[in-house]
Write a structure and sequence with these properties.
The protein is built from 12 helices and 10 strands. By secondary structure, it is of the alpha/beta class. The protein folds into 2 domains: 158 residues, Periplasmic binding protein-like II (D-Maltodextrin-Binding Protein, domain 2, 3-Layer(aba) Sandwich); 132 residues, Periplasmic binding protein-like II (D-Maltodextrin-Binding Protein, domain 2), CATH 3.40.190.10. It is globular. It holds the Pfam family NMT1_3.
Length: 322
């Protein structure tokens, strides 16, 4: 064998492990229904990770939102995903829908508060939450935190409705066709969600708010949610109202590699355009502040590392377990 051939073979052998080591780590992100404005946010996050987090390759999967994502993370079907702060707290504590079955779940960041908007057709003849009794009504897309929380709120307040289950697309079509009177849908900050605006294009809508008495009851009996006042202008012609809310963020099991989590959180926290373009509320909100305000479970060690580097002292509830 001549010297040149040996040299070429040696060079080829040397490059094989280097090429293998250079392969990106695939990250699968669980999101929500593709018709939701939150899905667009996760598409932006996926692109941001691909551009800014060296060695990571992210893909976004349409899912049934929080409950579905927690189940998928437990089965190793997704690496991280959308979670709401109230259901995340239930999962970690092993309460409510997770009674006696605590889940391995940590928080990466919170990107918005999610007012829960009770949207109803204006011609349904319903002008209060109590008026929903026996009315065909969707409490939230199947498997979502909105569905679970709506049912808990209605139970707490002694309310009822004729619940109709389905995906966002199914329910939006049913409301347009007047087969269902309305639904509960997370807002985009203090604005109505894209799917609600789709309904409002050809159908007059109204938003049903809490009475002062109902708001006081929720504050006293459901500490895992917040009661918020939404100013006039959530959409054209919508007056101010009061409703319940929780934070929406991104969770991951503690088994997610710390360096991977750190790279993702760093890319998200240092971005000032991509996420705001996908979700308008982020043009004014600070994700680190939202995380500190709405977070209900300990941060992933990789996320906590980023906060520590910024000199931010984490509240006890957000500190990772030692």
């Amino acid at each position: 064998m001549n010297t040149t051939l040996r040299a070429l073979m040696g060079a080829s052998l040397l490059t094989l492990p280097i090429a293998a080591m250079a392969q990106d780590t695939d990250i699968l992100i669980g999101s929500t229904s593709a018709s939701s404005s939150h899905y667009g946010y996760f598409v932006a996050v996926g692109q941001l990770i691909n551009e800014k987090a060296d060695g990571l390759s992210a893909s976004v999967v349409e899912t049934g939102a929080t409950m579905d994502n927690i189940r998928r993370m437990e089965r190793d079907q997704v690496d991280l995903g959308l979670v709401t702060t109230n259901v995340a707290q239930h999962a970690v504590a092993g309460t409510k829908e997770f009674d006696g079955k605590a889940r391995d779940l940590t928080l990466l960041w919170v990107y918005t508060g999610a007012p829960q908007n009770v949207v109803i057709r204006a011609d349904a003849g319903v002008d209060s939450l109590k008026g929903l009794e026996d009315v065909r009504f969707n409490p939230g897309i199947r498997g979502s935190a909105t569905e679970t929380t709506t049912e808990a709120v209605f139970d707490t307040l002694g309310l009822s409705a004729d619940y109709v289950r389905g995906s966002t697309t199914d329910i939006v079509d049913a409301i347009k066709d007047n087969r269902v009177a309305g639904y509960v849908k997370s807002g985009a900050g203090q604005k109505l969600d894209a799917s609600t605006m789709d309904i409002a294009t050809f159908t007059d809508i109204r938003v049903l708010g809490l009475t002062p008495e109902q708001a006081d009851t929720l504050r006293a009996e459901m500490p895992d949610i917040s009661v918020v006042d939404i100013p006039e202008g959530a959409a054209k012609g919508i007056p101010a109202y009061t409703t319940w809310s929780f934070g929406v963020g991104v969770g991951a099991p503690s088994t997610l590699d710390e360096e991977t989590a750190y790279k993702i959180v760093k890319a998200v926290m240092e971005d000032d355009t991509a996420q705001a373009n996908a979700m308008a509320s982020l043009k004014e909100d600070d994700i680190s502040e939202l995380t500190l305000t709405y977070g209900t479970v300990p941060l992933h060690p990789g996320a906590a590392r980023w906060f520590k580097e910024q000199g931010i002292d984490l509240p006890e509830k957000l500190r990772p377990a030692e």
